[in-house]
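Anyone else keep sequences and structure tokens together like this?

Example one:
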Amino acid sequence: MGGGHGGEGVTYKGLTLHKPKRWHTVTGKGLCAVMWFWVLYRAKQDGPVVLGWRHPWEGHGDHGHGP
């Protein structure tokens, strides 16, 4: 259960950790980059509101309420 017994790996206290396949490593790094780009983008957009520096309804453009 849980995989085969052959191949390379490191055993520590009865738990064998096998080396990940290349596509697992590349996919993990790619998804990590997407996550950080998203976090930094949202911090740029919502940072001042989250930190309490301005209200959400302030500073998002003029809607032309006057002449």
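And example two:
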Amino acid sequence: MDSVPRRKNSVEGGRGDGEQPVEVMTGMRHECGVFGCVAAAPWPTQIDVAHVICLGLVALQHRGQESAGIVTSEGGNSKNFHVKKGMGMINSVFNDEAMKTLKGNLGIGHTRYSTSAASEEVNCQPFVVHTAHGVLGVAHNGEIVNCDKLRNLVLSRGVGLSTRSDSELITQALCLTPPGAERDGEPDWPARIKNLMKLAPLSYSLVLMEKDRVFGVRDPYGNRPLCLGKIVPINNVYPGEIVEISKTGIKTITIVERPHDDPQAFCIFEYVYFARSDSIFEGQMVYSARLQCGRQLARETLVDADIVSSVPESGTAAAHGFSRESGIPFAEVLCKNRYVGRTFIQPSTRLRQLGVAKKFGALSENLKDKKVILIDDSIVRGNTIGPIIKLLRDAGAKEVHVRIASPPLQYPCYMGINIPTKDELIANHLDPIKLAKHTGADTLAYLSVEGLKLAVRENIDNKEHKSVGHCTACLTGQYPAALEW
């Protein structure tokens, strides 16, 4: 999830919700976004809560564009939630007519991309279920790594499931009474959440709404991001933390410890790729971490050149860092057409390559007879970098040296990121020398894994504390211990 200013008390996060999507893509899919908001007392509020949530989802639109949903409630003894969900972008789902129906003092929202459930309206979130103790709304961020085990447990309790979504599975698991709890028949939602976290330690950030409060929950490994605040400052939800947001404010219910005292496993690719540059994680702005990646990349892979540039906008922060560290001036060489859709939706390699030419134009005056260092944040399948290099050479570039501000992607992710299969990842087939030849670059080099770790930890407070730790599974194949369960 990204950190953005919010009105009143709110909680938000970023995610994917577990069947493989049908589109042909050139890169990773973004994670989904979750957002929750509770108006401060007195109620009924004068704040348009649904509009606040909608603005929050707009800020998280980059994390998912398949579907969106908002659920609101007046709170108190309200027996009904107001729900609006649909396929498509946020501005197409939430028109003026839809927003008028979303009355309430609190609510949660979701913008989605699929990882485990098909891109269909039945899988749109938030999910709403009617329990013996009232209505419950759930929006989920991540992917349950032991979902088969949890699914069998839920089914054994006589609970039916209508989708293959991890998110519905979480919703139904929360309706199970935890052992030794709720003797007087009153629901203990914090105890139920804690029970779920012990049954499924990875990977999620959740926002849950019942009656007059919203819970924010982050998995014990801290793999998916989640933060909360009023307007400013934004605070991270700690790994394993359950926070309760009500009209009286925000409080921590409990913090569930990681199994076996395992290290934290915050997704390092949040810094590289997924998050907005103005997001704040672990006390630092993502932009500054990307700038530091560029500095480290220059230390490791410097080559003689006239200018440093980037593939906009993904590599721009790192390119500025590379330029500052190396002393080689930064200059734009590509002009991005902001009205062209993503190239990954094209059904063939040829059409994707044509899409690249349509998406970018070369600034020939900055390029002619120049040795160029071109920075990008990552290479996944490697389908688009070749056409970009050709574009630069056709515009007069003398040399093109590609530098990637992250290590080679070599392994799939099972925690909510839709990384292509191992066989589809170009780094598993071509080393940097062969990849440079394949793409038409003079040279190509990646940032090292240790270099990436150093870069993202540079500005973290207490960087050596045990609470600091990053998941590098997609780069190293070393997964958090919970995946061994």
